[in-house]
Amino acid sequence: MKYIISYSKPHNHYIDIEFIADKIKHDELLIQLPSWRPGRYELGNFAKNIQKWAAFDEKGKALKFGKISKDCWNIQTKGVSSVHIKYNYYASELNAGSTFLDSTQLYMNPVNCCVYIPERIDEPCEMILQLPLDYKIACGHSQSSFPDFIIPFESGDNRLGENSFVFKNFHELADSPFIASNSLQHCKFVCFGVEFNIWFQGECCPNWTKLTSDFMKFIHEQLLIMNDFPGKVYHFLFQILPHKIYHGVEHTASTVIALGPGYNLMKGDLYEDLLGVSSHELFHAWNIKSIRPVELQPYDYSKENYSKLGYIAEGVTSYYGDYLLFRSGVLDEQQYFQTFAERLQKHIDNFGRYNLSVADASFDTWLDGYTPGVPNRKTSIYDEGCLLAFVTDMFIRKNSDGKHSLDDVMRYLFNEFALKNKGYSDIDYKGIVEHFANASFDLIYNNYINSASDYEPILHEAMAYIGCELILLPSAKFHEHSMGIKASEVNGVCKITSVYPNSAADIAGLAINDDVIAINSIQIKPDGSGTSFPEWCKYFGNKPSSLTIASNGIIKLVEIIPQPNCFYKTAGINKLLTADENQKNNFKKWGNIKF
User: For residues 188 and 249, is the Cβ–Cβ distance under 8 A?
Assistant: First the structure.
């Protein structure tokens, strides 16, 4: 089977694709386009980007076909030996999991736009890219057995060439995104015998010395933990955009990361984001790309693949992605505590923790996992999952007298499941945790992972093991801690974005998406700084206030009686001043701090 990808009129964003399948043996043939992509556990509906679709036999005769679902076609193939499917794909969206074509690059995630024959998904296939001759290709998949296979030919006024890649099956093809461009920036280095490549596409000025130094530190730490790597070569593919964006998608031999704006790439928060998402996505090479829940072994691209283990796939990875930057010395203690506090803050601000467990939220990513959804419905497999991974790590360390940790669990899953091509279940995970802790995991597993609850009790206990404490102080903003409102400027309007349950605002009848027009007859006129409403609330203080609200187009007055320091809080983590020597030593061992 073969895919021919043509670069013709990049300005219109349409990619021309021809799929050729021979050895047709039946009178009918089903052709499937993936319904979703691994790394984002919701339906993608990629077929909406197809404008033209047609099927032909080996002689160019059109074949009858019909759609039997949103992304599956049935072709009449009686007497046909090979099928040629010609279609195009609209590629105008640029993020870490999309496909994009313009005059500067062809960037493709094959899982978005390459069809396959379901019963032949495990057969080898070839991809031929027809590209400008000066284009380089950044891809986690090694080039075909013909590395110099470039055939120039004329196509209009553009000089093009063909580059061939061979894949052992569709799974490998789907897991091999690439960037083809004449403006790629690249460097590579080796750690523990594994070659690592960093590629940048887009306007930016990488500091290669700083990048390779920091990358080497966290990569070295991850390889030390896992003792092995799923492959011999790995590629970080960066799409650097001129505007703000933060997105990463994992693959076995690569990751695609979208960040911006490019002028801030090596500065402050954006550089920390670059390091954080890179560490996170690299750990995915083990956790989810190799170590997989049994429900995802193998992937079924045609429908939802439900699993309750997203809190392990994403939560454990989020924990290690942040933690290993600290443990490897890339981030200092203060920087890591700040990152951890951001996870804590999202948890305490998310009242969905009382309504949907993180295991059930894992299952429901297929429903609304990547959008805010209805207020206070769900938890986050990333943030709550990260906190539970930390709790689990401390649980194992404490109960094994520091002999074991979550590291041992991940190594065991890699060696005994991933390398043996087996998926693991939640019971497997629970049992492995209990094995290394030599203690029952029932309390955490039943009451926190599989039940909707506040994590505060187990977080206090986990932090105490390493001589730290969870800090919850009243929010610095009056309208948050005394009224129970969070608000922000949206398109020149002060809009309520969150209401604390049973707070003064909730009792007064305020709701998310209400617009605040005035307080005590003084107009709230956002100036871009976001300070107008907060400052007036602070000015009027604890006195009852009258808010003029626009709610679904209806203007109304709402009387609100503040209750000081009762509602939104600010979360943090501090070292205990009273920590004993055991706690201090536990912290040093956990943080890989030399005595």
Answer: no
